[in-house]
Amino acid sequence: MTDDDRTTRTPRRWARRALAALSGLLAGCTALAVAELVAAWVRPQAGPVVAVGGAAIDRTPAAVKDWAIRTFGTNDKLVLQLGILTALGLLAVALGLLGLRYRYAGPAGVLLLGAVGAVAATSRPDSTGPADALPSLVGAVAAALVLYALLGCLRPTPAPPTSWDRRRFLTAATAVAAASAGAGLGGRALNGDRGRDAAASRANVVLPPPASPARPVPKGARLRLGGVSPFLTPNEDFYRVDTALVVPKVDATAWRLRVHGKGVTRPATLTFDDLLRRELVERDITLTCVSNEVGGPYVGNARWIGVRLADLLADCGVRPPSRGGPADQLVARSVDGMTLGSPVEDVLDGRDALLAVGMNGQPLPFEHGFPVRMVVPGLYGYVSACKWIEDIELTTFDDYDTYWVKRDWARRAPIKTQSRIDTPKPFARPEAGTVMVAGVAWAQHRGIDKVEIRVDDGPWQPARLAAEDSRDTWRQWSFPWRATKGGHTLTVRATDGSGAVQTERRARTIPDGASGWHSVVVTVD
Questions:
Q1: Cα–Cα dist 199/453, whole Å
Q2: What is the distance of C-alpha 252 from the center of its chain?
């Protein structure tokens, strides 16, 4: 072999490796595109990315989930999906390179990944059966055939590779790319059709006037200060924390709610129209996520309209434990398989626990639970705020552990008294003089009676409270601070309606919510 032969073969060897890696990527794209097309016929949640992502969420330790929410906020699901796609891309490249050396090994690896996706899909809590395995399996078979065919174009021949060999690969690769794009677009179109039915059902919803409307927001409950959270949180700004990688699009005309279990003497199955025909109430209620750190954003206040859950349960013959009822836990199940457990005694103690159908004057947005969700004042969302609810079972805490309880969160989780400084922001540089410090405080079902501010290590000083709407909503507050030049630490604490002062003791969100005082550091110029 001459030096010229070696010089010629080296670039060709690297070119074949690059094309093998490209073959792996094209096979991966084929798998995802075909799987999405099949998932459109089965159900979107059965797609491999969603199924594997859901399985990853289910098996991730609670501390890691909490870190993800704290770090990425409501983009945590997008980050997870991008991570899965990146990992699949790297695996696809590796299988393409492996297949270049061992032609059958690459396709075999693709089939193995398809089997992993199938197991993930069928093991999800919301799995509807073996059909959920089809998207991953069919996608894997298509990808294995594509990879085998593309690698065949790269096989060495007795003569040096000719331009015809390169044309053959490029033709095949172009055809695969076009077919994958077509399958992916077809799957999206079919999923869009399914989503359009649900969207049409939502667009056709006309919320009846509530028999018990919310009273007007009291004069003085809304502070006219820049930087403070609005008293009512707009729907598009309301926090969303859940495990759904694909937001369920539920057709209200096909939706059903089943009520059954211990102590239910009259089980019931209700339609959406059945709920709308019942007496509706409208209430302002603040919700809080248990993953909300001290000073965090996962709290919001909205005007909800719905059916009193206590009335519905009474019609089904349910009694609280204090009156001899056999069930002490209400398990709410979502269409995506999520389970949340609420104390029956709390739901039936007279608070405005709702099966909500509307939010801020509109039907629930899909992201917030359309067509129906639970809202229970005073309890963290993971034990009360079931979105896309379809089943209510009365049971006991001893007999059943819900999704989050199995992952080391507390069974019972009343919301802790908290307060937050909205303005000035951390590390702000206000000018010397009067600086308005303001924010919100909440202790749902107990209310807020006092908010105090401390500057550096000085004494606690009372802030001015905005008017109270109800004990179930947050209260805005403000404090005119005479700021002097230099660095300062501002700290806030609240006292709830029971007289309990917000604790200074720092606790992380796990197992039953964060605690501690919120502080911001500013530099006055």
A1: 47
A2: 21
- Between the alpha carbon of residue 313 and those of residues 258, 355, 523, the distances in Å are 11, 11, 55
Mean pLDDT value across residues 474-489 = 97
Strand partners, 389: 334
Q: In whole angstroms, give the CA distance from residue 54 to residue 366.
A: 19
501 confidence band (pLDDT: 50, 70, 90): very high
Tell me what the mean pLDDT of segment 55-60 comes to.
Answer: 80
Q: What pTM was computed for the model?
A: 0.85
Instruction: Tell me the β-bridge partners of 93.
Output: none
Closest by alpha carbon to 89, among 50, 32, 145, 146? 32
Find residue 268's DSSP bridge partners: 259
Percent share of the chain, pLDDT over 70: 95
DSSP H helical ranges for 154-308: 163-203, 272-277
For residue 463, pLDDT beyond 60: yes
Residue 273 identity: D
- 359 forms beta bridges with 304, 362
Residue with the two structure tokens 């798998």: 31
**Average pLDDT score over residue span 492-499:** 97
Peptide bond preceding 371: is omega within 30 degrees of 0, i.e. cis? yes
Distance CA 313, CA 354 (A): 11
Q: Please give the pLDDT value at position 329.
A: 98
pLDDT for the residue numbered 6: 46
Rounded CA gap, 460 and 462, in Å? 7
Instruction: Give strand ranges (E) for 344-474.
Output: 354-359, 362-363, 373-375, 389-395, 418-423, 433-442, 448-455, 461-462, 464-465
Quick one: which H or E segment has residue 26?
A: helix 3-42
